[in-house]
Design brief:
Helices cover 22% and strands 38% of the residues. It contains four helices and 13 strands. The strands form two sheets. Strands 1, 2, 5, 6, 8, 11 and 13 form a seven-stranded antiparallel β-sheet that branches. It is globular, with a radius of gyration of 22 Å.
Length: 261
C-alpha cells in the first residue's frame, strides 16, 4: 500500500492535480467576475480532505511519544484514550457564538440554551512544562442567560467493543478556571432505543490552574442490557458559568474490569 501511495504514477497524478489548481488560482486572481459555484464547492471539498489527511498523519506521528503509554493505570486496563483534539491541531480551531449542537470536531460538540450565544469554545496550545497533552479545550462565557452549558466528547468505537456491566470507565482530567465553578461529568451509553446515564460531580469546585480530578463510572450499577453498545459519550457540564473562562487541559479515559464480588 505504501508503494502505491508513493509510487511514480501516484506522484505524477498528484503533481498534475496541483498544477491544475495552480492554473485555476492564477486565472481566479486575474479575472474580475465571480468564480463558478462548482469550482468553489470542489475546492472546499478538497480542502476538507487535505485538512483531515494532515490531521490524521499528525496523530499517527505522535503515537511513539504519547504519554498515555507511560501513565499509571489500574491493573487490567484494556483501553486508554486521549481525544485527538488534545493531541493535534484541529481543522476548525474555534466555535464563536455557536448554535446548540454545533460540532467543533468529530469528537466535540457544544450544547447550551443561551439566547445570545455568548460562548466561545476553542482549541488552544498547551505550552506549560506540566502539560501532558499538546492542546487544550478552552471555554469562554460572557453574558450567559441560559440554564445549561456543556460539551460532549464522543467515545471511539474501540471503547465500545465488549463494553458491559463488568467494566469501570475511569475519567482523569486536568482543568483550570478563572472563577470557582462546579463541573459534572455524565456518561451516556446508548443501546438501541435506551440510553443509560451516570452523573458524577468532578470533586470540589474548580478554581485556578492544574486542578486534577479523577472519577469512575462503575457500569456494574448501570441498567444495561445484553445488547451491544451502539454509542457512548461523556458530557462535561458547567454549573452557573456566567462570566468565566474554563480550560480542559487534559482528559484521559480508560477502561478496566471491575472486581468480582
Amino acid at each position: 500500500m505504501a508503494r502505491l501511495e508513493t509510487g511514480w504514477i501516484s506522484r505524477r497524478i498528484r503533481a498534475r492535480a496541483a498544477r491544475q489548481w495552480q492554473r485555476l488560482l492564477d486565472k481566479a486572481q486575474r479575472r474580475r467576475g465571480a468564480v463558478p459555484d462548482e469550482l468553489r464547492d470542489e475546492a472546499r471539498d478538497l480542502q476538507q480532505v487535505l485538512t483531515r489527511y494532515l490531521h490524521t498523519i499528525e496523530i499517527r506521528s505522535l503515537g511513539s511519544r504519547d504519554s498515555l503509554s507511560r501513565m499509571e493505570l489500574p491493573a487490567g486496563t484494556d483501553w486508554r484514550w486521549r481525544p485527538e483534539i488534545l493531541r493535534a491541531r484541529n481543522a476548525m480551531p474555534a466555535l464563536v457564538a455557536p448554535v446548540s449542537g454545533r460540532w467543533l470536531s468529530d469528537e466535540v460538540a457544544l450544547f447550551h440554551d443561551c439566547p445570545q450565544r455568548a460562548v466561545i469554545l476553542r482549541q488552544m496550545r498547551n505550552r506549560r512544562a506540566t502539560d501532558l497533552s499538546d492542546y487544550a479545550l478552552a471555554l469562554e462565557v460572557m453574558g450567559f442567560e441560559g440554564s445549561f452549558l456543556s460539551f460532549s466528547l464522543g467515545l471511539p468505537p474501540q471503547a465500545l467493543e465488549g463494553l458491559g456491566g463488568h467494566h469501570i470507565l475511569r475519567l482523569a482530567t486536568t482543568l483550570q478556571s478563572e472563577r470557582a465553578i462546579t463541573v459534572y461529568a455524565r456518561l451516556n451509553i446508548q443501546q438501541g432505543p435506551n440510553t443509560e446515564k451516570i452523573l458524577r460531580q468532578m470533586g470540589d469546585p474548580i478554581e485556578g490552574a492544574n486542578c486534577s480530578r479523577l472519577i469512575e463510572f462503575d457500569l456494574g450499577y448501570a441498567d444495561m442490557s445484553q445488547r451491544s453498545v451502539e454509542k457512548a459519550w461523556v458530557d462535561v457540564i458547567f454549573e452557573s458559568p456566567f462570566m468565566n473562562a474554563v480550560a480542559l487541559r487534559d482528559v484521559v479515559l480508560s477502561r478496566h474490569a471491575r472486581a468480582q464480588i
